[in-house]
Amino acid sequence: MTRRFLFVLGSARPDGNSELLARRAAEQLPPDVEQRWIDLTAHPLPEFEDLRHDSDHVRPTEGATALLLDATLAATDLVIVSPLYWYSVSAQAKRYLDHWSGWLRTPGVDFKATMKGRTLWGVTALAHEEPEVADPLVGTLNNSAAYLGMRFGGVLLGNGSKPGDVLKDTQALARAKTFFTQDAPLARFPYEAG
To answer: What's the pLDDT tens digit per position in 37-52?
Structure first.
């Protein structure tokens, strides 16, 4: 199967550090790998409404929700590109993940089975020297992938606060060169052994 990457941009700032780092990593992908970039600020999702126990789920046919659902289903690799906001993903990225809950119950989508075996990645910039502060963000993405039976390629971390700062993080730029070439194991919840 030809790989198709969907980069979901969850920053409140255009061309932010997380996006700059993601674009550096994406430059390393082979030319035959399809890339699609969707900015959640340009295509804002509506507030998520939890309808788990209602029976009238309908597949969206227009707007940002339909665009993101179709793009998500078409991707073999999903990349959440979000700065570290209060030690997790941005509000825009979290809202996108919340919509996955609704897509699990959308007729004709079979979201969980479709996502099984695909790969989830993360790219984030943080304004902190210790990378451990991003553990909640990494956990959010890993556990989301584990729930859906996806592979998890990990999170490419870079350091930067002011616009363009991440381009001075030589270690992050070096990791970006091989980030998408690494083997992405099946995601596991922390309580699952080996």
So the answer is: 999 999 999 998 877 7
Cα–Cα separations (whole angstroms), residue 79 to 29, 60, 166, 184: 13, 22, 18, 13
Q: How far apart are CA 168 and CA 181, in angstroms?
A: 23
What are 146's two structure tokens? Answer: 């584990």
* Backbone phi and psi for residue 109, each to the nearest 5 degrees, phi listed first: -95, -40
Q: Is 157 left (phi over 0), alpha (psi -120 to 50) or beta?
A: beta
Instruction: State pLDDT tens for residues 135-165.
Output: 999 999 999 999 999 999 999 999 999 999 9
Task: List Cβ neighbours of 76 (8 Å cut-off, separation of 6 or more).
Answer: 1, 2, 3, 4, 5, 118, 119
Cα angle 26-77-29, degrees, rounded to a multiple of 5: 25
- What is the model's pTM? 0.95
